[in-house]
Amino acid sequence: MFRSQGRRLTFLPADGMRVLARGYISIYERDGLYQFYTQEMAPDGQGALYQAFCQLKERLQKEGLFAPEHKRGIPYLPRRVGVVTSQTGAAWHDIMKVIRRRFPEMPVVLAPSAVQGQDAPEEICAALQALNDRQDIDVIIMGRGGGSLEELWSFNTEAVARAIFCSMIPVVSAVGHETDYTIADLVADLRAPTPSAAAEMVVPRRDELEAKLQQYLDRINLSFCQKLQAAREDISSHSVRNLGALLSRTAYINKQKVGHYSSHLIKRTRLIEEQNSREIQALTGKLEALSPLQVLERGYSMCLDAQSKELIQDSSKVQVGDQVSVILQKGRLDCDVRGTKEETDWSSSKN
Fold it and tell me: Are 188 and 214 in contact (CB under 8 A)?
């Protein structure tokens, strides 16, 4: 049996096991041997199927697919229910009958699939994936009616088990009757004994929800009325005198708070004023040091053009006959230029 066919086996063949094989006979020319090429293989008899069931169960259990920590809770009131089963089977009609009786407006989406036969495992996996691709499904019911081990075998395959385990939506398994157990039941988040029971587990009764909601509303109204009555009694129990004392006490506390805040504000204002005063004095000192008046006080003077009032710093900018103004510490001199020199004779000025 080649590897490509061996991958489709639903059980692990062992020495001495009785099996049913389908294939073809061919001759190996090199050795002149007849060989039987197996294309399909299945256990022969109920005992062999159960053995295959036990083998897969043990292997998946070791991998942790049945572990309780992987089980997810079923929503109390789902937005929409997904169902994986045969559209023509009794399970689909039983599920819809129960849901319509318990909650007529509950939306239900059917992902039709074969539930027995060679193609059933692949269709079940595809249906689960189709429901997972939607964004409005909160829970999935997967199952079928009762039958023999061979008829339920699609729900004992590894592919279906892993599809249930990988589902992002909680899955309720409802395969067969109450006494039937499959691998799908062990992997699912919740097992229901029958498809009808699964519908009852997933969908609550609307009349019970309405009754419970009314109870909550009644309790809220009663609690509100009681609190309102207690408040009225508390107000009426206070006399005008007690109310005046309460107001006086409140006013005294608020007056103390205002006084505290006022004192803090005054201190803060004074601190800011002192800080600003120091900064102004420092800036004033810097300004006075840079003032031209300080230069004049040390005996220097400034020469300005009499007409443009521009400061003259270079003798070449003045010609003989021009009028200039000489600014002193006290007063001003209006002068006519009689001559200019490009260099300053500091030695003669000292003499």
Answer: no
